[in-house]
């Protein structure tokens, strides 16, 4: 760690596994999950990153220490790392990690709700911006999101907007987001409304049923034409298990 | 139909629905399924396109007639059409359809095993080349596939190689394909070994189990680093039902 490099608060490093969501769905990747979020979505499936319940598990790590841990876990089997949270865009120092990963020939993915901008976001290869619909209980700051999108305008990232949809209101919100950013690829994802159940099979079928509902809604819509509709693969596979 | 325009043998036109496979997984799209194939894969899930069982359903349609049918079915709800088969690359006249769709502002996807080249393939927006592994019973003509790939070198298509994997041999075949075309994105897809069962739930669970097997194999492999591993979404949702 150089003197000016502040550590990154990390809650989980795991993989390789498949990315279960978004445009990069199915991608073989390692995950680095940072601590802390400026939101508190009602259905957050990573609330341990911000509700204090896992605060004793947070490690303060330098970019190099994160890389060392990734290599211990993944050896030579990976070329993609996803930075997730919480909201990693709260952390200025992720920039050191992104540079280090790029130096090692690794593609980097990021998941954030788009409530903050960091310079290093322009260097992310696979960028998923997931503004939160009404069912989350959060209010989107559209001007802030405009600013993030404007900053990304000239980047060569693969960018998508991902909206998790639980109900009709969420779907209307997705339409609104799509109209505001018509040139950004849109991914709609069916929401998991039971983030604690251990009944894996029951959960998988509930999700497939809701997925079919979402597909039916979107297929009938002339507002949503250029769009992908996806389930969460990891939830279909592993239910609510952490670290897979 | 202009005098030089020969009709296209079409077996199904349906949608809008979600693309269940490949890099375009989840994409809202219409499907045009052509008749005829130069292969006869042991596990073909569209064997009615070539085994004679649906030969009375084949319609000889011009590009314009196909477009009219797409509009009747999909109205203003779609901007993406997937041409599937059978092997549409047997048909020179698909070129008329691709041009007409582009004129209408539609993105065009194609699925083919890569055994034939047609000029119009360079114009396809989302191109899935799916060479068939040993379990199919087919033998890949690698020189022919090299030629197809060479012809696509300067196109701005989104191209991927998709290999359906049933067993270890198939996985080795995928590694071989990946080494031969290292710069083309690779998608591995778990195979559906029961293309007739009507037990939708049983099939979904069998597929999720095989998907987990495939994930485990690929995650441990240092030959397969930059790769996506996916299930067939439509089979998880609708089992072996046709036309969804
Ligand atoms: S933005 Fe993401 S991590 Fe933060 S509370 Fe919402 S779902 Fe959870
Ligand atoms: S190439 Fe495709 S359509 Fe032709 S036999 Fe094989 S699986 Fe069926």
TrEMBL record, chains A, B:
Its cofactor is S-adenosyl-L-methionine; Mg(2+); [4Fe-4S] cluster. It comes from the Bacteria. Mg(2+) binds at residue 46. Keywords: 4Fe-4S, Iron, Iron-sulfur, Lyase, Magnesium, Metal-binding, Queuosine biosynthesis, S-adenosyl-L-methionine. GO terms for biological process: tRNA queuosine(34) biosynthetic process. Residues 24-240 form the Radical SAM core domain. [4Fe-4S] cluster binds at residues 37, 41, 44. Its EC number is 4.3.99.3. Binds 1 S-adenosyl-L-methionine per subunit. Gene3D superfamilies: Aldolase class I. SUPFAM superfamilies: Radical SAM enzymes. It is an enzyme of class 4 (lyase). One of its GO terms (molecular function) is magnesium ion binding. S-adenosyl-L-methionine binds at residues 43-45, 86, 130-132. Substrate binds at residues 18-20, 33, 84. It catalyses: 6-carboxy-5,6,7,8-tetrahydropterin + H(+) = 7-carboxy-7-carbaguanine + NH4(+). PROSITE patterns: RADICAL_SAM (PS51918). Pathway: Purine metabolism; 7-cyano-7-deazaguanine biosynthesis. Homodimer. Belongs to the radical SAM superfamily. 7-carboxy-7-deazaguanine synthase family. Catalyzes the complex heterocyclic radical-mediated conversion of 6-carboxy-5,6,7,8-tetrahydropterin (CPH4) to 7-carboxy-7-deazaguanine (CDG), a step common to the biosynthetic pathways of all 7-deazapurine-containing compounds. This is 7-carboxy-7-deazaguanine synthase. The gene is queE.
